[in-house]
Structures are given as C-alpha cells and as structure tokens.
Automatic annotation (TrEMBL):
It is found in: Membrane. The lineage of its organism: Eukaryota, Viridiplantae, Streptophyta, Embryophyta, Tracheophyta. GO terms for cellular component: membrane. The keyword tRNA processing does not apply. Pfam families: Ank_2, PGG. The chain crosses the membrane at residues 380-402, 423-444, 464-484, 491-513. Keywords: ANK repeat, Membrane, Repeat, Transmembrane, Transmembrane helix. This is PGG domain-containing protein.
Length: 537
C-alpha cells in the first residue's frame, strides 16, 4: 500500500485522500480496483485502516465505489467490521452494518473464533463485569444467545433476542438452534422464553434430524421434557430423527430411566411410541437391550401395550439382540438383562434356540453348547448337594456334644457359650442354606431351555462361593473349639484355617468372577503357586 494513501486514509480528510489517490494513479498507472485492493504488511485494506481510525467520510467513499472490500480479511482474519468493533468506532460500525448486503458478516469468525457480534457483546459485558477473562472464555465461539443460555443468564438472553431477533435462527456447529442448546443443559427459563418468542423453534432439527425434545430425552432433563411434550407437536409419534427414532427410542438408548418412566406415565403418548420401529426396525426395547440398560428394559417389559415378539430388520427380537451384544457389558450385568427379558416372556427367533458362535463361551468349543452347559449344571448340582449334606450332618453333630439328661439344661450344646462355637453355628447355617438354595436354582434350570440353564449356571456361582466359604469357616471353628484347652494348638488351627480360607475365597472368586485383566490372573496364579510351594518345601 502506498504510504501517502495510507496516511491520508488514516487522517480521514476526503480531499487529501482523493489527492493521494490521484498521485498513485498517475505515478503507477494502476487501475482504481487494483489500488483499492492494496493492503498493509498486516493485510489491512484501506477500509480496515479507515474503520480503525474512525475516518467515516473516507470509509463511506470506499463503500460506495468498492463495497466488496467489506468482506476482505487481514492476516488475523479480521474484517473491517471486526476492526471497527475492536476500536470502539460506533459510527464506523453502523455504516459497515447498514452498508453490507450480506447480513451474515456479523457472524464471521476471525482466527480467535470470534465474530464482530461476539466482540461487541463482550465489550458491553466488560463494562459491567470485573471478571473479563472468565467471560471471554464463556462467550468465545458462540452467539450471544447461545452464550446467555450456557450462562443461564435470562436477562442477557432476553436483551439479545429483543435487539437481534434474527439470532434465534443462528445454528451451532452441530446444526442446533438455541432451543437445542437449552434442552441439552436443561435450562428451563431459556426454554420458556424461547417458546414464548418463537414456538416454532421446537420444530427445528439439527444435522442429525433431532428435535430439541430428542436432546432433552437423551440428556434426561425432566422439566425440559415436560415443557416440550406439550409444545412440540400434537402427535409425538411423528417426531423422529434421521434414524427414524422417536423420543422413547432416544431415552431408551441413552438408558435414562427417569425420562422413560415419565413417558410411560403419559399413557396416550406412550401407546404410540412403545412399539414404533426406527429405520433398522428396532423398537425402544431393542435399543435398551442392545445397550443392556436393565432398568429401562424392566420398565418397558412391564407395559401392557408392548409387543414383546417384535423383530427388527435382521429378524431379531429384543432377547436376540441382548444375547448378541453381551460383549459390550459385564457378564453379571448382561445376565441380569437376559433374566429380565426371559422373565417377561420375550421370545427367541426361530432357529436361535442354539446360540451363534459369537454367543458361545470358550467352554463350549469341544461339544455342543447345550451339552456343555448341561454338564456344568450337573457338576455344580453335585457340589452343592455334597455341601448341603456335609453341613446338615455337622449341624446335628455339634463339637463338644450335648448336655446329658441329668444336667441343668439337658439337650443343650455343651460349648454354647464358647465364642468359636457361635462362629461355627452361624457359618455352618449360612453354608447349608446357601447350598440348598443353589440346589433349588440348579434344579429349576436343569430341564429348561439352553438360555435358562445358562442363566442358572452363571447365577449360582456366588451361592456356592458363600457355601464353601461358610463350610471352611465352620470347620476350623469346630476344630478350634475342640482343642481350645491347648492354647498353642488352638492358635495354630485358627491361623492355618484363616490362611486357607483366604486362599479358598481368592481362588473361588477368580473362578466365579473372572477378570478380563491379565494382571489379576497373574496375581491369582502367583498366589496359588507360592501357596503350593510353601506347602511342599
């Protein structure tokens, strides 16, 4: 840029500006368009310089003849409007806004992600707030309305809407409106104000085709959902995103039990949503089962209007989906989900009575899954029966025996007031009842289909752990009572009993609740190896 032309522009004298322009034209023989397109080392155009200096007359002259310069950016990607706002040139700002045919320029962002509108609002706020830095972080990268919603500032939101109502239609990077932003954080005041100003915002969608009520159901803000339920559309079954999912689909997929229960209580709405399918043919129950949201599955299956046998586009029922997606959940959580669906009567698809290779465990590799699980159930049934028999016998043959008929309390245990005797009684009772309960559970699953048998096989593990632990405690407690008169022997029996009890619990826990972490397996293996080595060395 010519130095004299730069100085004349900065000074703001129109006559000097025209004289400097003529000199450049005559000396360099350049077209006017090329002269006006010249920039400073920082990339500032003549309009940038005029806007920054408050040279309103020169700026107006430039805008009349070369309005396109209005959109030109410098090295910081600031437009002349950015510069005018930053330097607090009010008249220049007015001229630039009024003279620009492209109204979107007030939203154009510079390298810092700030639009002229951001800068203007930030400067107004800074005059009222001492915490400039905190506000700058909050306001950066969003329109004033979105900033007000995020800050829960109702007054700023109201003022922004009154001054610039067009901001109601400004979209964020995900295509969401201010209503979407308010729904995502549960800003009830903002929802009420936006519905009052423009109720049609509730019918705007983002890039995913989601309505604000979809966002509210996904994030679980109940008060927001309640407000939008009656202000979105009379028939909410028609409100679907690009995946064809209604609001119950979204809530079920997110696992938000509070939102699901709210929709269940809205009987008229719920009837139209519960059996609806998305583009993949999945119902809300399918999605809840796919992500193993047990509470949601339980609530949905209890509904009288639900069709438990519906299949998706792959021909899968909700139980099929749960069985195939078990890898995404912990085993116990997945089993609970399966139990809920089986208990509710959700069927398996034809031809799926035997699990697919994905559903089979590693133990079923050498035989069919049904045969393998049957063998496992029979083995556990034998163990549980033996524990029940042993503990029942121990309960009748108490250590120390009973008082004779000639004693003050005939038939009572002779060691009744001994501390370890009480430990024996409690542990033996716990072991016997746990083993009996395990037997009952295993018998229930013995003659059922594969999946019920598998469910009983996995669920009986904790019962057997309790039974074997209780039996171990009862044994060393009984021996301790029997040798209690010899202190060193009693202490030895107690110490060895506790040591081996810990070993039993650790090994059984590792077997029943297998860890997917290699570290845990190594620790258990090392623990067992050291124990055996110490025993024989």
């Amino acid at each position: 840029m010519d130095r004299d032309l730069y100085e004349a522009t900065k000074e703001g004298d129109v006559e000097k500006f025209i004289d400097a322009l003529e000199k450049v034209y005559e000396s360099r023989k350049l077209a006017l368009s090329l002269i006006f397109n010249q920039v400073t080392p920082s990339g500032n155009s003549l309009l940038h310089v005029a806007a920054s200096s408050g040279s309103d007359d020169v700026m107006e002259l430039i805008l009349i003849h070369f309005p396109h310069i209005m959109t030109q950016k410098n090295s910081l990607e600031d437009t002349p409007l950015h510069v005018a706002v930053q330097d607090k040139r009010l008249d220049a700002t007015k001229k630039l806004i009024c003279g620009e045919t492209n109204s979107e320029i007030i939203y154009w962002k510079n390298k810092d992600g700030k639009s002229p509108l951001h800068l203007a609002v930030a400067k107004c706020e800074r005059q009222q707030s001492k915490d400039h830095e905190a506000y700058a972080v909050k306001i950066q990268g969003m329109s004033p309305i979105l900033a007000a919603i995020k800050k829960w500032d109702k007054d700023l939101l109201k003022e922004s809407i009154d001054r610039l109502p067009k901001l109601l239609h400004v979209r964020d990077e995900d295509g969401g409106t201010p209503m979407h932003a308010a729904a995502s954080i549960g800003n009830e005041d903002a929802i009420d104000l936006l519905l009052e100003e423009n109720p049609y915002l509730a019918l705007e969608t983002d890039k995913n085709g989601s309505y604000p009520i979809h966002i509210a159901c996904e994030t679980g803000h109940l008060s927001t959902i309640e407000r939008l339920l009656w202000n979105t559309w009379p028939d909410l079954a028609e409100i679907k995103n690009k995946k064809g999912q209604n609001i119950l689909h979204v809530a079920a997929k997110a696992g938000d039990i509070a939102a699901v229960r709210l929709l269940i209580h809205c009987t008229t709405i719920f009837k139209k949503l519960i059996n609806s399918k998305d583009v993949d043919g999945n119902t809300p129950l399918h999605l809840a089962s796919m992500h193993n949201h047990c509470e949601v599955m339980s609530s949905l299956t209890k509904a009288k209007v639900i069709d438990l046998g519906l299949r998706n586009n792959d021909g899968l029922t909700a139980l099929d989906v749960a069985m195939e997606s078990r890898s995404s959940s912990t085993r116990n959580s997945a089993l609970l989900g399966h139990a809920i669906l089986i208990g509710a009567g959700v069927p398996r698809s034809e031809g799926r009575d035997v699990p697919s290779p994905r559903e089979q465990g590693s133990g079923a590799s050498k035989s069919s899954p049904a045969e393998w699980i049957k063998d496992q159930v029979n083995t556990l049934l034998l163990v549980a029966t033996l524990v029940a028999s042993v503990t029942f016998t121990a309960g009748l043959t108490l250590p120390g025996g009973y008082n004779a008929s000639s004693d003050l309390h005939p038939g009572m245990a002779t060691m009744l007031h001994h501390g370890m005797f009480r430990v024996f009684v409690i542990a033996n009772m716990e072991a016997m009842y746990s083993s009996i309960l395990a037997v009952v559970v295993l018998l229930w699953g013995l003659n059922r289909d594969y999946y019920v048998a598998e469910l009983t096989y996995h669920s009986v593990g904790p019962l057997l752990l309790m039974a074997l632990t209780g039996m171990s405690v009862a044994f060393f407690a009984a021996v301790t009572v029997a040798v209690s008169k010899l202190t060193w022997l009693g202490s030895l029996v107690l110490s060895v009993g506790v040591l081996y009890l810990v070993m039993v619990v650790v090994v059984l826990a590792a077997l029943i609740f297998p860890s997917s972490k290699t570290t845990m397996r190594i620790v258990v293996f090392y623990y067992i190896a050291v124990s055996i080595f110490d025993k024989f060395v």
